[in-house]
Amino acid sequence: MKNLKLYSEISQNLELQSQQEVLLFSAFDFERNRLFFASSNNFIYTADLSSFQKGKSKSLLLASSVINQIELEDGDLITAFDYLLEKEAVIIGTANGLLLLHNVDDNSTEIVGQVQGGVKCISPSPDGDLLAILTGFRQMLVMTHDWDLLYETAVGDGDGLDVSEFDGKDMFESSVSWRGDGKYFATISEASDSSLMLKRIKVWERDSGVLHSTSDSKIFMGAVLEWMPSGAKIAAVYDRKVENRCPDIVFYEKNGLVRSSFSIKEAVDAKVESLKWNCSSDLLASVVRCEKYDAVKVWFFSNNHWYLKHEVRYSRQDRVRFMWDPVKPLQFICWTLVGQITSYNFAWNSAVVENSTALAIDDSKILITPLSLSLMPPPLHLFSLKFPSAVRDLALYSNNSKNRVAAFLSDGSLGVVELPDPDTWEELEEKEFSVEASISETGFGSFVHLTWLDSHILLAVSHYGFTQSNCASHSSMGEDGLSGFYLLEIELVCSEDHVPSLVTGSGWHARISRRNYLEGLVIGIAPNPAKKCSAFVQFDGGEIVDYASKLGLAENGGSTKHDDMSFSSSCPWMNVAQVSDSGSLKPLLFGLDDIGRLHFGGKVLCNNCSSFSLYSNLADQVITHLILSTKQDYLFAVEISDILHGELESKYENFVHTGNRRKEENMNFINIWERGSKIIGVLHGDAAAVIIQTTRGNLECIYPRKLVLSSIVNALNQRCFRDALLLVRRHRIDFNVIVDHCGWQTFLQSASEFVKQVNNLSYMTEFICSIKNENIMETLYKNYISTPYQNRGGDVQAKDVMGFDASSKVSALLLAIRKALEEQVSESPARELCILTTLARSDPPALEEALERIKVIREMELLGSSDPRRMSHPSAEEALKHLLWLSDSDAVFEAALGLYDLNLAAIVALNSQRDPKEFLPYLQELERMPSLIMSYNIDLRLHRFEKALRHIVSAGDAYFSDCMNLMNKNPQLFPLGLQLITDPAKKMLVLEAWGDHLSDKKCFEDAATTYLCCSSLKNALKAYRDCGNWSGVLSVSGLLKMEKNEIMQLAHDLCEELQALGKPREAAKIALEYLGDVNSGINLLISGRDWEEALRVAFMQSQENLVLTVKNAALDCASTLIGEYKEGLEKVGKYLARYLAVRQRRLLLAAKLQSEERSINDLDDDTVSEASSNFSGMSAYTTGTRKGSASSVTSSVTSKARDMRRQRKRGKIRPGRYVSSSFIPRFLSLIFCSRTLA
After folding, report:
1. How far apart are CA 1136 and CA 1142, in angstroms?
2. CA distances from 64 to 27, 40, 44, 337, 739 (A)
3. Three-class SS of residue 1141?
4. DSSP states of 530-587 as a string?
5. How close are the terminal C-alpha atoms of the chain, in Å?
6. Cis ω for the linkage preceding 379 (within 30 of 0)
7. How many Cβ atoms from other residues are within 10 Å of residue 551's Cβ?
8. Which residues lie closer than 8 Å to 945 by C-beta, 6 or more apart?
9. Where does the record place the region Disordered (predicted)?
10. Are 616 and 622 in contact (CB under 8 A)?
């Protein structure tokens, strides 16, 4: 689904030696890019093709041409001509049989042989090792490049022809063609019975000259024969005049059997004079002589159909001939008898235009297919437009309801047609509409780069003053003798009123409203969507100039050169994207050159691009994504914002896939499964599709995840929830994207609108079952699309809106949807099942509430109620089965038990296919119990201990022991038990049991308080003593009314215990207040370094010896601290210097490792795995080897001994010893902390 677009056409002239002289033969030297021509006056002309690439638009004589004359005998003339690459010379055959080797560089000619009957054809083998020569006697001579004859054979059915019988009408026709690999060659010759001009194609083996195969006798046209370079087909031409039909091009296989054929669709008297394949074997060109003109036609084969993709017409007097470039498959050169040489450069352009409509050129037809309706590869199409002659170029204008197609035809006319609204195109299926050529008073020349500026203005580059344009124009030299290239602005007017539902293809008038002469060669034109009646014109070399309809180009002073948009080289494929940048619209220009470089903004985005397209998911057609494929068959969807912000290298790694599987998950590409596939277009908006065409011709539709998610997000931003849901279902996207796009708390406010728009309970059930607590925008799709914003404070907002604490995403969403279903959807069985789904999928599942709803339905069924609501609910069995399908059957059974409805539990068990032997005895046992005890046992089974406690307390005093056992096993129930139990004596038992539990848990303070509440003073005293609360111990001793000596002994014991626990100050307080021992108290205060308190007590006692003792102890402590401070200061200075050295060394090592990181990343997975295993546990200071893990394993005894040595050496850091960068700061902080504590 592509068209062959002509993007450059350059003509130059050879100056012949006389007016009667004509060019007869041509040859090509692709190494030095030269063309050789042999003339009727035996001159050899050499033309340097570099002058074509460097030439200006205006016609010039070939200044670099070299002319050599071949001296021949009178009456002798050149009959065969070719170039031998190995000899770097041309080989010439004459009518007298001479074989001449002519060196153009030194103008020397050498006679290398002579054959009888004259030389009819010379054909070198593709590898240049052999030379096939066809003589006038129909003898085939095969020689080496050293002129040694390998063999000679007759190509006709007889033994050869006498020279007097030779018919010279095919003298200049070659009838020998080699296969691309040179192993075979084919000839065409008359059959034995030539009365009907029957001929045969014969295939010969290269080395032996043995006849390999022969075709059936057919009426072939002349000696036209061409073997496809790939070797698949041999092309020839059938003459169908006897059948009153135009010629057919037929294809043979190597075995001589016909493979296929097609008609050239010309008049009966048309003659195919030559056939030539391009070097890639995908294009077949021919010269067709018609009654009024000669045409060079180019065909392309795809999907078992031959398309005429391009046609160039010349006048019959020019006798045009052509040749393909041997190495450039999309370039051919035409030349005329009088020496005009024209180079045509083509490019394959996608037939899919901006509105996803395919406009495929096939001869005089344009096959139209809107791909948004159906993916139909040509030759299939929805409808077609038929023009008076072959279509060379086309352009589509599509804006709002206007759709117009302009086509430049091979006869030089312009065809315009207005199409109806695309919504009505389905009514045009399988129809063909004839289009008349527009009426114009002047000739247009030869068009390239046809483009719409507006609905009534066309812009094109026209080639004036050359024979092919003269044939196309109404005058011989164009209007007013114009010559060269001009930029034409053509105004269109239709004299007929357009009917919206019909095709308008007649009544169009075209007038050239503006003409600008072009100095440079134009490579492409693209309309500027940001400015009306404006376009970007690309000149050779990539320079971009802005063209405005009212201002014209530089000559009129109205153009603007865009250096920031220009390309660094010529880009035959160019496209303009209108994008949004910070809220403003601006155009971006993308160009792809012929070596695969994608240009943008003066730089290269991708160096290995094979095709690209632009995608928009917005209604205003603002481009949001660049879609490109690489030569490695990877497809990338690039956000325009990434291009504008310069994030391509970080996100797409220069569009090069290194094969590292660890990075594949993060790569934004799709692996195209068929090699050589190209992007031909996209489906914009919600379709979110990329259309590729494989080399076989079939169309494939790809839905890149990034484009699909972009379309979904766009629909959500517009609050089109149903459209978003349909996209999610169609493309199997996680439903959570609808919720997580802007935060689920925000979605809660739109839940009612969501349910109202979707209005499909089946879709709602799918959505409900897919909700999960994970935020997939930050996990599953984080590499495809970014979350626009995070809804902060969402929990509070959700709580205010919905009236509950929204701590769970699933529960909050399903509650909101459940309320919306009850409000927005009328009662029906489907709605009830959907509500049950929301309850079953809650987190945790609200199974009891769901069973309550089922219980209500069951009760209505048992009562036989005629309530209309009964009909709006499903049956209880259906609802229960639905609930069991969504939930775990055991959980549903336990939830039914939790309702204390044994009948319902039995129904659940039966519907969950449980064995009655498992559940019936248990249910029967429960049924025999009193109601409260049954509830108590069910609560114990379901671990609902608070309810169990309430039920067992309500059962009476007889079950108090069970109540105590329950609280002892579940201590969290003690506060509730104290609230439920009203008997004071039993409360005391509960408190004492609670205190025992707290004591067992080492919560002695709380245990003591609990014991005091139940007047268990001894236990309280023990608890206070266990927790070291000496004041509480002495207080309880007072409550116990202990004797004084007992209290003194208790105080003495407490003092010793506190001193042992490292609490000298508290021990001193007991010694002073309870024991009255001043000396012991002051000594304890000195040991605790509480100097002020020690002095206070000493002065209070008025004892000088105690004061002196405190002073001496304080002086000793001060001198010790000063010494430790000086020692610590010295250590800090030494360790700080050590830290700086280690830090500097680590920074140097990090820089070195970072520089080697790329080489490590280039390793394959196995190498990286091996390297990582060898380097694990290593560092810059490791002294071990890398010989494997076995050598590093030591016994546990050795490891323990090493740890003990390290413990002993802790606190020492020797120079050269391994230390981490964080060890020294930690060591310094320990020194500081130890000094502070001291």
Report:
1. 10
2. 17, 21, 14, 19, 72
3. helix
4. TSTTEEEEEETTS-EEEEETTTBSGGGT--EE-TTT--SS--SEEEEEEEEETTEEEE
5. 88
6. yes
7. 16
8. 939, 966, 970, 972, 973
9. 1182-1212
10. yes
Length of the chain: 1238
Residue 155, classed as helix, strand or coil, is: coil
Mean per-residue pLDDT for 1170-1177? 40
pTM of the model: 0.76
Instruction: Note the pLDDT tens digit of each residue in 711-729.
Output: 999 999 999 999 999 999 9
For 813-827, what is each residue's pLDDT tens digit? 999 999 999 999 998
Q: Which amino acid is at 384?
A: S
Q: Which two tokens stand for residue 1197?
A: 């005894």
Provide φ and ψ at 263, rounded to 5°. Answer: -90, 145
How far apart, in whole angstroms, are the C-alpha atoms of residue 302 and residue 697?
6
Please give the DSSP secondary-structure letter assigned to residue 171. T
Instruction: Give the contacts of 991 (CB within 8 A, at least 6 positions apart).
Output: 978, 1010, 1011, 1013, 1014
Q: Dihedral through CA 1183, CA 1189, CA 1191, CA 1194, nearest 10?
A: 90
Q: Name the nearest CA neighbour of 678 among 613, 610, 614.
A: 610
Closest CA to 708 of 655, 769, 785, 770: 785
What is the token pair recorded at 792? 């902060």
Q: How far is CA 663 from the centre of its chain?
A: 14
Residue 159 CB burial class (10 angstroms; 0-12, 13-18, ≥19):
exposed
pLDDT at 235 (0 to 100) = 95
Pairing of strands 669-671, 634-639: antiparallel
Which residue type sits at 500? P
Torsion of CA 345, 350, 353, 358, to 10 degrees: 120
The 10s digit of each residue's pLDDT in 374-398 is 888 888 899 999 999 999 999 999 8
Mean pLDDT of 913-925: 87
CA distance 68 to 1001: 116
CB 617, CB 710: distance < 8 Å:
yes
Q: What is the pLDDT of residue 708?
A: 93
Can you tell me the distance from the alpha carbon of 308 to that of 286, in angstroms, rounded to the nearest whole number?
Answer: 11
For residue range 296-324, what is the model confidence (pLDDT) as tens digits?
Answer: 999 999 888 999 999 999 998 889 999 99
Are 543 and 512 contacting, i.e. CB atoms less than 8 angstroms apart? no
